[in-house]
Amino acid sequence: MRLAILGASGHGKVIADAAEQLGWKTITFFDDAWPRLKKNGPWEVEGDTRALVANLSAFDGVVVGIGGNRIREEKQSELAKAGARLAHIIHPSAIISPHASVGEGSVVFANSVVNPCAVVGAGVIVNTGAVVEHDCVVGDFAHISPNAVLAGGVVVGQKAWVGCCASVRQLISVGEASVIGMGAVVTKDVESGITVVGNPARTHRQ
Description:
Elements: E1 2-6, H1 10-22, E2 26-30, E3 39-40, E4 43-44, H2 49-54, E5 61-64, H3 69-81, E6 89-90, E7 95-96, E8 101-102, E9 107-108, E10 113-114, E11 119-120, E12 125-126, E13 131-132, E14 137-138, E15 143-144, E16 149-150, E17 155-156, E18 161-162, E19 167-168, E20 173-174, E21 179-180, E22 185-186, E23 195-197, E24 202-203
Parallel strand pairs: 1-2, 1-5, 6-9, 7-10, 8-11, 9-12, 10-13, 11-14, 12-15, 13-16, 14-17, 15-18, 16-19, 17-20, 18-21, 19-22, 21-23
Antiparallel strand pairs: 3-4, 23-24
């Protein structure tokens, strides 16, 4: 099986490593920095976005390896319109309830947990060691960072970013495109488009 990853980044390396452990035999990167960028760790970079779109039929699956939520959404939408077979990559050590769902193009990394009746949308990153508890809804192109914890029934809006080691109390809503700072403890709903930090989390004003 051949997998194409768009985005020769550190995040892309983690996707490739998980994919190898899942049994993908050939992994090829594409990145718009090509031809200046020709390697991503041990993996080859063979072209840019246009080259991937022109050769989609050569791949059994495609995933976007870009950490930025907005750009990941743009690239995944472009690939979907071009007819890409979008894959989701779930590390073998991740625990995904059979009663949960994970959308196309999403990645779930090592030692993370997605519990019953949770819904993980399209193009989501559930990063290393993160916990998405029962009945959570994680919107498309959101990012749940390493060791972050969403308690039961949390709703995370599209393109939101929950930082490393942050905790979100049960039944909280996190608005679209908002940012939860690293280590924050969220005890109240978070409006769309804002950043909150601290314990308890409060709006961050620069």
